[in-house]
Write the structure tokens for this entry.
Amino acid sequence: MSLPPGFLDELRARVPISRVIGRKVVWDQRKSNQARGDWWSPCPFHQEKTASFHCDDQKGFYYCFGCHAKGDALTFLREADGMEFMEAVKHLAAEAGMTMPEQDPRERQRSDRRGELLEVTEAACRWFRLQIQTGAAAEARDYLARRGLDRAAQDRFEIGFAPGSRTALIQALREKGFDEARIVEAGIAARPDDGGAAYSRFRDRIIFPIRDGRDRCIGFGGRAMDPNARAKYLNSPENPLFDKGRNLYNIGPARSAVAKGQPLIVAEGYMDVIALAVAGFEGAVAPLGTAITEDQLRLMWRVSPEPVIALDGDTAGQRAAQRLIDLALPLTGPGQALRFVLLPAGQDPDDLIKSAGPGAMAALLKQARPLVDLLWTRETEGQRFDSPERKAALDRRLQDAIAKIPDELTRRHYSDEIRRKRRDLFGGDWQRRDGKGRHGRNAGAGKAPARSGNGMPSFTPLPTAPPDGPDGAGSFLEGACLLICALRTELLASVETRLERLLPRDSGRAALLHDLLTGTDSDAGRRALETLRADAHLGLTPNLIESQEAENVLAILGNLFDRLEAQRAAGAELARAEAEIQGEADEGLTWRMQQITRARHRAERPDMEDTGDLNEDRDALSAQLEQFLSGQIWRKPPRG
């Protein structure tokens, strides 16, 4: 629908955004300033106790400093109530007393069509509810009772029953004035391929109405009573109302529960959701008979920044979790995370609650694991890494997976966590149980830090006069970094990223660096460490390093890494400059250099035959070369 210019601006101006949001939150009166239109509350989009959600009537925007949700009144209606854009516009226009512009005829037709289909599904829902009380539904009622669903639970979730008749529902709806074409289009009935009479799609099944975020009945799910039925669960087909990949069962009540502080729990099926909700976990939803889709993930994140995926403890549930990893990684980031609960083998949430009570489920939810844990488990569980090639293959798979994460900060934290897990797998803990580092030296644990007279930790500066020359300076800084990291291994995790960039030329130092990063202990690394300990240039002793508090040592390391990286950056610039020099040399200099080289060759080979112009005075040529170099004639002269 096309809206005239300025319509939305006037709409936003007429309705204070605090009025729209105020229906979903409780304003913090101490922090808010009503006179200025400045409002604060706990965020309705994620669980929190503090008022980090800010709403500004003058600007017409909201922003959460916790989960970073932001937008205007229309955005809020779409995110909090699940409205489509035009539905949100109409809702706000009605509140503002504004008349909506005339709709395009085709759009009006589509809107009217959806309205008619919703009337059909609501009528069918009522009919199914009536059938659950009939004699034909006795077996269905017994099944529900065995599953622990009393009459109150059945009423709460509007559970109904579809009898075995092929035409009873169609006839009942036609008597209410609905034509057969609309009944078929709403997914309640189907026509055979041979063009025969329409028949009810759901027969001899317990019926679960599916409602969207606005509490509209958009479809149905049916559980077969016949154990030999071709499909145990059957959903409505795709139609103008129902898109199973973009909706979640129980999304409306779950959103309200999450806004009150409950977690969003994603289970596998209808009965799991109902069992969780009845047990007090009211923020439960389920995908509609299919694997979780990208649209469903985004819908979850609009409700909660960290949904908990509670999958059955069978093989299928574990496979579903593994598939979800690849779907979620390219979408994850701040405010869009996942946690996972893997139930005991052979149990679903309903089984667990019945056998061990709601407390067991609550305990599992508290132990929910982050996505990075499942990624690591998927790539390592049941495998042996007894060769460099296998370790490299693991590293490559993990790097490829992490590279899919779009947010740089999230990607960095994933890399840090994977490195920690890799150290634990291949090298053990950074600290041994005897309180010593890998190389058997005390890492400073349990020592009282040295303090100055004013009670503050003492800070012993490191020597700042390295050996002469840039290479000497780099070697000094590199050696100091390696020595401190080897003696204070409990700090490695804090500087690991910078340590990885050292790239020592010396093979012994390279071996020591490898030991530090992987948690191993090689002979070459030990020899390199002893050499560093004995290096007089460093001026470092174990007592000096170990007597410092961790924060002081980290400050020293940070300074050393900064200086080393600056020195290497300067070296890189010099290398580029030298490359440019070669491109700037003129032909005359090139010819002269050739002459000098050939003359030097003659001096080294007196028996060489004379070649005319090479029979020059070697001392003169050497002096000329020195003049060229001292004058830096290859530099381009400055422009006038």
Remarks:
- Residues 428-470, 583-587, 608-618, 620-637 have pLDDT under 50 and may be disordered.
- The chain is about 50% helix and 10% strand.
- The longest strand covers residues 217-224.
